[in-house]
Task: inverse folding
């Protein structure tokens, strides 16, 4: 692969480690943001950090990281607080109050930075896109090892987040899924909320300082959203989101190095490509998720639609036969009554023939013995339902057909027995047609 | 004029610059470097030039940003009511890859990659794709709006950054100007930009005025609009299309990230001033126009203040002002109303307490006696969960209105007017209690509390209706209480109504 020949284990290795640490610690908290429908908060916080950085610089007059870190975290927490206040006191919709707060803080930050630009090389560009590529250049010595400062900071953050999630899993779960219950069962949901917000701010600042805010926002939301498409269980979602985030970090860096080479360019932004990689992962998860995937849902609906069409066809043929045993309907006749499209109708007819439920005699169709049995049960369900709806749901004979049409496909033998008992075993539906017996009496 | 300049400096919310300008002025005069970014107080001439729009450039910029603020405010108010406030945010981020791709394609075809129409076309296409993505995620998966916005925003922006990384390596053409899309550089706006903003913005406003009724219905009652046969999906797409157009024409002026603020802040501020949609969009339009105008004027006067950010900060200041002082929805007016209601409730409780005290002792038959009977405050304290200080305040206020007379420290009595008022209040309270017992099946022992919650906000018409509804049980002026009244005992349990808000 082009580009990989320049791979340097020291440089690229540390970049990937930093990416993984950042992705894992953000994804971990992001699960709760997604579940609490607060996904945009990560975005708001990362934008609003700017004035915190600038203020910290102006007050401490240094670029050392601790004051900057503290300033940014405070600004991040303030974003969450201000949003809550404006929403509460001003009765402004959540999204709007967030929009007001973070754009204002961002603008304030820009003004402050432009004013301070003489004294500090706080490049807004770096703040926005991050400089994960520069990670290995800023190292500190720990136990004789030269470790990038970022890696140390992010490891600590990851550890804190991990401990928080492990120790407060039950509380987080309850307050994410049912805040009202969480409050009434006695533990402090507000406390959990603000701890979570503080950790989100800390994580955002720690990652943002080095990898930029796009990556932070992407990792807060995208891997957890993808994990949410794959599972219904919180525990699995947490694990999956971290795995997906790590995967996105690795593929992101590799593709940042290799993909531009295919088009004759040098490597591009790792942070940007990590976001893109996680986006692609999300698309896959959303399409192919086992229960909630778009394709799975689509296929399930198609199969149901075909099953219903097949049932409609044989039930219709039963009714035709009931009226005039000699009439053998053809495709067009069936389609005219069912309003079905040509291709699915043809396919369904072929399927029914293959199943041995209908016979094809020169384009005209008739029910076989098995088909007739099936159809009789459907028609019986339909007419029992009609009867039931008139008798017990107070509907008039004119309005019941549609309802019964829907219900008949989901009615099994047990339910039919119950309906039969409930309708006092009548043998006529409200339209005066006979309700066929369960078993063929012939 | 100097004082005004100082005020403006403080408004610019940057204490540091103020200190710098005050202390380092000598230094600034001696060594004025090109990188000097401190804010010097402008000369009178500078003010005049801006206010009289003497500079061609200033004219263009102020006109452009004002028009932008107008259209963003108007379109934004529909988006805000539709709870799509952050759509502009997602959208403005989603335009970045389109800008980069448009640049790459145009340059490789030998065209000028930085020509505005080409870049804006790219921005529009990827912005629309972003909206499509948001709609797909929201409608086809079980994720909600917020996650859809977050995903599209971050992934598109990431892609944009990655593409910009490539653009910067391109041999042909300089990509440096693309950065301005992120921060905006209003100061370099030229006449054609202002024309573009003006014509596109006015078209958007015209469309929203023509479809005003439909869009309003869409914002307030989508279901109803659908039932009435309005093409809801089409209208929704139209509204988002308007947001796209406004966002894109604003990119150049205030930048990608700050564009959202023009779509959100003026409408959110306007919301505090009115309950009506038409007024809201009008107020938002005016506030947006003022933000653009004042913001860019300030950045023209103080050349080191970035205009995009200044426009936003002016809008924020207006928002805060509206949130506090707005009528009828601002914080202050709501606080005031609540305060009024609370003191009304407290006074009614005081009067009722006094009345019931007298009634329980049979002192009411001769009104004269009642007026001259003093009630010890300590008895009243036991009836409600009032603190002595609070009771004192309530009594003082009632005394000012000549409803009670307080003789010594803890002795009060009703005046003639006070007695009349008390009788009315007690009567209403008991009417409501009776109603609850008769029609709502509330037990007589519980009814006192329930009545407390509502009686203070009953309209006169409701009282009249209650009177006719309930057979008068007493021939005297005041109804008999349907339950025993225990004056001397502790009534603190369950009687928080002194502080309870009547909602």
Result:
């Amino acid at each position: 692969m082009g580009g990989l020949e320049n791979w340097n284990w020291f440089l690229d290795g540390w970049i990937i480690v930093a990416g993984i640490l950042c992705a894992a610690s953000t994804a971990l908290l992001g699960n709760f943001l997604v579940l609490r429908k607060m996904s945009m908060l990560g975005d708001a916080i990362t934008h609003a950090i700017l004035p915190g950085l600038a203020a910290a610089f102006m007050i401490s007059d240094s670029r050392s990281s601790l004051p900057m870190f503290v300033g940014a975290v405070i600004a991040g927490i303030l974003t969450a607080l201000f949003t809550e206040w404006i929403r509460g006191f001003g009765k402004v919709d959540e999204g709007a109050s967030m929009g007001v707060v973070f754009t204002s803080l961002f603008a304030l930050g820009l003004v402050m930075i432009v004013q301070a630009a003489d004294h500090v090389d706080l490049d807004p560009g770096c703040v926005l896109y991050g400089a994960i590529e520069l990670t290995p250049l800023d190292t500190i010595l720990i136990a004789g090892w030269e470790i990038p400062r970022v890696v140390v900071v992010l490891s600590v953050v990851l550890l804190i987040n991990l401990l928080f999630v492990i120790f407060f899993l039950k509380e987080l779960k309850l307050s994410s899924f049912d805040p009202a219950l969480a409050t009434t069962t006695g533990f402090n949901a507000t406390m959990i909320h603000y701890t979570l917000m503080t950790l989100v701010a800390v994580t955002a600042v720690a990652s943002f300082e080095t990898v930029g805010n796009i990556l932070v926002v992407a990792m807060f939301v995208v891997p957890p959203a993808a994990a949410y498409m794959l599972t219904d269980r919180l525990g699995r979602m947490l694990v999956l989101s971290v795995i997906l985030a790590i995967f996105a970090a690795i593929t992101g860096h590799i593709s940042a190095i290799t993909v531009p080479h295919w088009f004759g360019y040098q490597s591009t932004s790792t942070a940007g490509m990590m976001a893109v990689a996680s986006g692609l992962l999300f698309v896959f998860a959303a399409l192919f998720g086992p229960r909630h995937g778009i394709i799975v849902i689509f296929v399930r609906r198609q199969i149901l639609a075909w099953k219903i069409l097949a049932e409609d066809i044989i039930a219709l043929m039963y009714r035709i036969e009931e009226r005039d045993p000699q009439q053998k309907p053809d495709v067009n006749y069936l389609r005219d009554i069912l309003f079905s499209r040509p291709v699915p109708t043809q396919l369904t007819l072929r399927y029914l023939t293959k199943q041995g439920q209908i016979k094809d005699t020169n384009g005209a169709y008739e029910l076989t013995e098995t088909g007739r049995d099936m159809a009789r049960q459907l028609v019986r369900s339909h007419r029992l339902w009609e009867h039931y709806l008139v008798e017990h749901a107070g509907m008039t004979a004119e309005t019941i057909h549609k309802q019964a049409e829907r219900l008949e496909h989901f009615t099994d033998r047990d339910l039919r027995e119950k309906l039969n008992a409930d309708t006092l075993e009548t043998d006529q539906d409200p339209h005066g047609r006979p309700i066929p017996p369960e078993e063929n009496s012939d | 004029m100097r004082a005004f300049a100082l005020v403006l400096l403080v408004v610019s919310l940057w204490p540091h610059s103020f200190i710098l300008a005050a202390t380092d002025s000598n230094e600034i005069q001696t060594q004025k470097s090109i990188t000097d970014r401190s804010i010097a107080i402008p000369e009178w001439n500078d003010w005049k030039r801006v206010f009289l729009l003497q500079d061609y450039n200033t004219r263009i910029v102020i006109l452009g940003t004002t028009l932008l603020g107008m259209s963003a405010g108007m379109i934004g108010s529909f988006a805000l009511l539709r709870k799509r406030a952050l759509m502009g945010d997602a959208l403005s981020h989603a335009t970045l890859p389109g800008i980069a791709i448009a640049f790459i394609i145009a340059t490789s075809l030998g065209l000028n990659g930085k020509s505005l129409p080409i870049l804006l076309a790219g921005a529009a296409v990827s912005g629309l794709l972003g909206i499509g993505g948001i709609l797909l995620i929201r409608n086809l998966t079980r994720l909600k709006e917020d996650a859809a916005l977050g995903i599209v925003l971050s992934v598109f922006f990431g892609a944009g950054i990655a593409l910009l990384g490539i653009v910067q390596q391109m041999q042909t053409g300089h990509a440096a100007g693309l950065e301005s899309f992120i921060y905006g550089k209003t100061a370099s706006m030229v006449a054609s930009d202002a024309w573009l903003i003006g014509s596109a913005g006015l078209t958007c406003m015209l469309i929203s005025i023509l479809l005003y009724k439909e869009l309003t219905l869409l914002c307030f009652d989508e279901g109803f609009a659908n039932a009435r046969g309005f093409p809801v999906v089409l209208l929704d797409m139209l509204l988002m299309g308007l947001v796209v157009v406004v966002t894109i024409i604003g990119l150049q002026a205030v930048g990608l990230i700050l564009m959202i603020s023009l779509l959100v802040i003026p409408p959110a501020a306007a919301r505090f001033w009115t309950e009506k949609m038409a007024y809201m969009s009008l107020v938002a339009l005016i506030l947006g126009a003022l933000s653009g105008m004042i913001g860019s004027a300030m950045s023209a006067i103080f050349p080191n203040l970035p205009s995009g950010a200044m426009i936003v900060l002016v809008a924020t200041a207006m928002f805060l002002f509206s949130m506090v002082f707005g009528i009828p929805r601002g914080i202050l007016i709501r606080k005031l109303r609540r305060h009024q209601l609370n003191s009304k409730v407290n006074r009614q409780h005081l009067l009722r307490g006094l009345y019931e005290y007298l009634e329980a002792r049979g002192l009411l038959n001769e009104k004269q006696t009642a007026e001259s009977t003093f009630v010890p405050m300590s008895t009243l304290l036991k009836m409600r969960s009032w603190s002595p200080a609070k009771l004192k305040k309530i009594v003082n206020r009632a005394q000012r209105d000549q409803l009670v007379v307080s003789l010594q420290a803890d002795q009060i009595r009703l005046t003639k007017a006070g007695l009349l008022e008390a009788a009315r209040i007690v009567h209403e309270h008991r009417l409501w209690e009776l109603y609850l017992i008769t029609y709502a099946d509330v037990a007589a022992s519980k009814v006192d509390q329930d009545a407390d919650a509502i009686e203070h906000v009953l309209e006169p018409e409701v009282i009249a209706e209650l009177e006719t509804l309930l057979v008068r049980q007493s021939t005297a002026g005041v109804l008999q209480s349907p339950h025993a009244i225990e004056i001397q005992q502790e009534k603190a349990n369950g009687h928080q109504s002194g502080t309870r808000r009547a909602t």
